[in-house]
Write a structure and sequence with these properties.
The protein has three helices and no strands. With 103 residues, it is mostly helical. The protein is elongated and about 80 Å long.
Length: 103
């Protein structure tokens, strides 16, 4: 095997390793982000229920309008961080993202 061919093969191996490693990190990040968001939605459920009840009782809007308002609530706050990103699954996702940000 010539030196140029050997270098080319090694380059392909290194490139493939980095691409497959990045793909593996991306898949894991998606999985962690989904777990975080699922836990956030569980934590937001009582607040969404309150939004729905207030919409129906206080503002007398239709059931579909109130369901829509409650469903889109995501815990965003004015001049503050969104709610429930301190949950363990979310912290795990953030730590993983930070650890693999340079890769």
């Amino acid at each position: 095997m010539s030196a140029n061919l050997f270098r080319f093969v090694m380059l392909i191996i290194v490139f493939y390793s980095s691409v497959s490693g990045a793909f593996s990190h991306d898949k894991e990040q998606v999985k962690l982000d989904q777990a975080c968001e699922a836990d956030r939605q569980i934590a937001l459920k009582p607040r969404k229920s309150e939004i729905y009840q207030e919409c129906r009782q206080k503002f007398k809007k239709s059931e579909s309008a109130c369901k829509s308002e409650a469903n889109v609530y995501n815990g965003n706050r004015i001049n503050g961080a969104p709610l429930f990103y301190e949950l363990p699954t979310c912290e795990k996702a953030f730590i993983f993202r930070k650890k693999h940000a340079d890769q």
